[in-house]
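User: Could you check the structure of this?
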Amino acid sequence: MKALERGVAIVLAMGVVALAAIAATAIMVSQSTWARRTELTANQIQAQAVLQAGADWARAVLSDDLRAGGVDHLGEPWALKLPPLQVENGELVGSIVDQQGSFNLNNVVTEGKVSLAQLAHLRRLLAILGLPDELADALADWVDADGEPHPRYGAEDAYYLALDPPYLTANRPLTDVAELALVRGFDDNVRARLRPYVSALPRVAAVNVNTAPAEVLAAVIDGLELRDAQLLVAQRERAYFRSVDDFLRRLPRGVEAAASDISVSSHYFVATLRVTIGGAQARGQALLARGAGAWPEVVWRKYL
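Assistant: Sure, the predicted structure tokens are below.
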């Protein structure tokens, strides 16, 4: 009997030791996980701080560029992708893209009223990209100030209130191209096809002929065929357009462009930045507006 009791005592003692070992392991794992989370949180905060510093780098580059000259083209320092820049325990990578090399979707409406000329430009761009031109009507209704839908493919409050979930038409300019996801007909495939060619800027903006792709040039210049626009893009790779007049002289015979639609300089740029600190990563974008002689303004910034 005493032997049995001793055996039970030994088993109990072993059980207590095992439980203590399990508890100690659990505590150690918990502490390790907490420490790792704390480290990642600290790294994430540091990464976001570096992102803000990266945006200031972009602003400084654009400010210096403006002082160097009034013509913007793809051979300038701002257009070159920033090589990985070493920061404490990580790196920063960034790039700057001219937003006036794209068609500004907000151009289709001026002071709340649809601009027929700009709407025609958008229709041509859609046709060049193989997209339905009636999408232009849906966009015009989204950003114009009235409540009357365009007859072909327009959509005002009645259309959007019938969706699940319901919402109202913006009746104001787009803040970001991502907002197109709310507009009738602009599904994932349409937005992916459009994204390299469009922007959403806070005011009417001319297209920079030194940075615009051929598709955008053909859309905003009446009578310019895509193949001729591609030739112009090839020409500027050898020598950028030094003035609007310089560009106009190189247009094919019989093709004319409205001086208000084109430019050789830009005010709006997007800086895209990625920071890696330890095991944490942060990505962000900022829309920068550059004025004459002024430090570029941050129109908006977002984390990706």
